[in-house]
Design brief:
With 140 residues, this protein is mainly alpha-helical. It has helices at 4-23, 27-52, 58-88, 104-107, 123-139.
C-alpha cells in the first residue's frame, strides 16, 4: 500500500475540518469540524505506523489515546454548548463573543462631578469612573 493515498485523504479531511472551524457559526458544527481534524490526524498516525512497520505500534497506541481525548473533548464541549444555549437562547458563535458581564455601567453614578459622599472628586477617581463607563459602552 502506498503512503500517498491515506496521506492525501487525511489532508483533505483536515482541510474540510479547518474550513468548518473557520466558516461555520454554529458551535455544534464547529465541534464536528474539530472532530474531522482529529480523525485526519488519527488516519495519518495509523498510516505512518503501518508504513514504518513499527514493532511497538506506537502510532496505533497514540491513536487510541487521541480517540479517548476526542471523546472527552466532545462530551465537555457539548455540555458547554448546551449550557450556553439554555442561558443565551442561541449557539451562534458570533453572538457569544460578548460573554463578560457589563453590570459596571448600571452601578456607576450618572454624574462624575461628585463622589458618593457629595464632595468634589479627586482627579484620579473621576478618570477611573469615566474609564469604566467608556469600557462598558464599548462592550455593548
Amino acid at each position: 500500500m502506498h503512503l500517498a493515498y491515506p496521506a492525501v485523504l487525511a489532508a483533505l479531511l483536515f482541510c474540510i475540518g479547518l474550513y468548518g472551524v473557520l466558516a461555520r457559526r454554529n458551535a455544534i458544527l464547529v465541534l464536528m469540524s474539530v472532530e474531522l481534524m482529529l480523525n485526519a490526524v488519527n488516519l495519518n498516525l495509523v498510516a505512518f505506523d503501518v508504513w514504518l512497520r513499527d514493532t511497538l505500534h506506537s502510532g496505533q497506541a497514540l491513536t487510541l489515546f487521541t480517540i479517548a481525548i476526542a471523546a472527552a473533548e466532545i462530551g465537555i464541549g457539548l455540555a458547554i454548548v448546551l449550557a450556553v444555549y439554555r442561558n443565551r437562547g442561541t449557539s451562534d458563535i458570533d453572538r457569544l463573543r460578548d460573554t463578560a458581564e457589563t453590570d459596571d455601567a448600571e452601578t456607576l453614578p450618572d454624574s462624575a462631578d461628585t463622589d458618593t459622599d457629595g464632595t468634589a472628586p479627586t482627579p484620579g477617581r473621576a478618570d477611573e469612573k469615566t474609564g469604566k463607563t467608556k469600557k462598558a459602552e464599548a462592550t455593548t
